[in-house]
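quick one: magnesium ion bound model?
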Amino acid sequence: MIAQQLVNGVMLGAIYVMVALAFTLAIGILNFMNFSIPGLFMAGGMATWILIHRGVPWWAAAVVALIVAAAISLAVERLSYRPSNEGDVEVPLVSSLGFLVLLQSLVLATVGSDQQAFPAVLGDLNLRIGGLVIGAAQVLSLAISMVLVIGLTVALKSTSFGRQIRSIAESRETATLLGIDVGAVIPRVFVISAVTAALGGVLFALNYLQVSPFMGENVGFKGVAAMIVGGMGSVWGAVLGGLLIGVAEVLSIRLFGADTVDIAVYGLLLVLLVVRPQGLLGKPPAREKL
Amino acid sequence: MTGTPLLRFEDVHLAFGGLRVLQSLDFDVRAGEATALIGPNGAGKTTVFNVISGVYRPQSGRVLLDGRDLAAVAPRQRIRHGIARSFQNVRLMAHLSVCENLMVGQHVKTNGLRDLLAPFRLMGNHRWRREAIDALAEVGLEAHADAPVGGLPYGIRKQVDLVRATLAGASLVMLDEPAAGLNPTETNALRLHLERLKARGITLLVVEHDMHFIDRISDHVVVLNFGRKIAEGSLAEVRRHPEVRAAYLGIEEAA
Amino acid sequence: MSGYQTGVLVILCFNIIAAYAVYLPLAANQLNLGIAGFMAVGAYAAAWLTTELNWAIAPAVLVGGGASALVALVVATPILRTQGIYLALATFALGQVISAVFLNLEVVGAAAGYQVPAYAPAPAVFAATAAIVAVVFYLSRTRFALYLTALKNDATVSELLGLNVRALQIAAFAIGAAIAGIGGGLYAHHFSFIEAQHFNVALSITTVLYVLLGGTQTVWGPLVGALVYTLLPEVLRVGAGWRYVLFALFIIGFMAVRPRGLVTPDLGRRLGAMLMRRARPGKAVP
Ligand SMILES: Nc1ncnc2c1ncn2[C@@H]1O[C@H](COP(=O)(O)OP(=O)(O)O)[C@@H](O)[C@H]1O
Ligand SMILES: [Mg+2]
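yep, here:
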């Protein structure tokens, strides 16, 4: 049933959209390939699961998880991003990878490597439209990610904070000359990016009723692929890329089996990187920081 | 050999988008001479170098080396055809020492895979190292041979950049503002060094703002303004030229 | 030497080999985040040769390295068109594709993994590692290494000085892949079993991390990085689960205070000066 597969692909894609969004904000505004994001995604889902286990109501657990992710992200800003301005170009990338390894191995050491069952807190409310079944969690994910995307687009366009961000993305020196407090804006970008990623992790857990230390590696890196497919630094590119990767994944599972997903998704990414590195909606690469 | 053109620009046009940087440019660089290329900032002098070394391709016109169209020669191959250059804003490899930078400059004289894989750094005072140090000694910088270039003063880096350009055995050496940022002693040493290069039969194309320096070293002067050649001849001749006076007076007024 | 010590040394050897596989392309400004994929090519190729064709281990491992280099050469032309972060991501994607291909390849066991009966004992691993280190150190004394640093610093000027930047980049990429492939082949024959899941992105990433921890500006850096990564948890006697936590903290802290890595040319020069005072002058300047 192909229509159902497409729906599932879009719903999975909605989660990739959030991770891609987190990456694209860091690249587009800060010129920073922030590899801690898959870790924050995992931290979002994992912290929620841990807290629910301790008896915290699921929504409160989710809120605390987002705060935890934001706090970790501020540490990334302080320890990975900020010192890099003078150092070698690979440093921030490597150091943020260090955070990914740290988060993953912390969970491995404390929770273990097993996949954990996540409670079905939304019950099994299902929407039935024609022959299609759409879960409540799926609708929630899609709704939240669309609200985030539209909210971000509007905020970047028409709030003064958005204007500050855009001028920093354009040129840090000019922004400083214009009197923008760059040092205060940047940590907030880290918080927004982290909350977006961690929210993706919470929604993933709600949807697929499982968390594991490796969920960031599995899903987070698909988010990287989504960002590149759409075009680094482009918000709508993240949406397009996320949905495309989601659909491609679900369809390739359906057509060729689960073990071929990585060949399809990363093969697509590889070809795209070679043929059109700026992605579908991105500008040609100009500035970059490795 | 003096008198025959080693390098010739024929009606060269180059534009970046709508910005015309070189317009219908014709001039010759005669073998064995020092030709100076002067003109106000933004006149297109560095662009001329970039066209010669193949960084930019002209939209029309030809650049001939010994009568041969350079369009057919890849940028990487041009140094093998005897064209070497220095850079206006010194472009040394920051993580290499002075001597190592010069050894990279020797590349086209080395012998393929054999030299590429020779473990010269195990061989103490290898001839490549000696040659680099001898070249440094000519400008009195041999003491800095093993210093990392990153920490050296600008004047020294500028001279190392120049020395590197001379190590490929090129017949045409292009120098982009070699005296800029040098103190009088260094400038004087530079002038003597350029005299020595000329005496070895090397053709020079020099961009420089210091008129006194130009006067001492150049045989022929080409003046550019807004990408056009507005005058050429001896320095005394071009100085009398009304357009040249206007171009430079304009600059002085603006400054 | 106790079994425990031998075990640690063998792991150290595999980490050193992997470190140099990452280091060579990195010296040419290529961050290869897919090195595990190249290890997988070498591992599976060599294992298949000894298992199905009854080859001896040594030629099989070498051919495995060759196969890995061949894959690198084939993908180099398209992949090295990308630069910087795009290249890092392209190699990352390539690594994922390669290990996913082996996950589906029935002739080598697919998802069930592949048994490798031929056994390479610890001394063989030591010898091979010593040989690889010797080759890399040899290369570091040549113009080849000098040119890699040159093009890493300024590719445009290197090109104008006549260097074949493209060929040098491809060579660095392929030699790195060959080393990874040899490491993979040895791994397969020492541990007698391989599975595609082992050659995952985490393996690629941790390798890159300890190489950068050691520092990439001298040939000693990767060696020191691998030593620290392997031995520090042993020395501190931390449990298996916590070793990566410790390592990650170390990386983060280190990158914040000493972003060039542990071993820098400056340190090298100072050490070199010390050694020179003892050894004959004019020899072995790092
Ligand atoms: N790559 C480029 N893209 C756009 N404009 C350029 C480029 N290179 C040079 N220009 C422009 O060409 C003009 C001439 O530059 P240049 O040759 O550097 O002048 P000069 O060396 O005589 O001071 C300037 O207006 C400069 O801005
Ligand atoms: Mg200039």
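The pocket of adenosine-5'-diphosphate (ligand 1) is lined by residues B 16, 19, 21, 39, 41-47 (CB under 6 Å).
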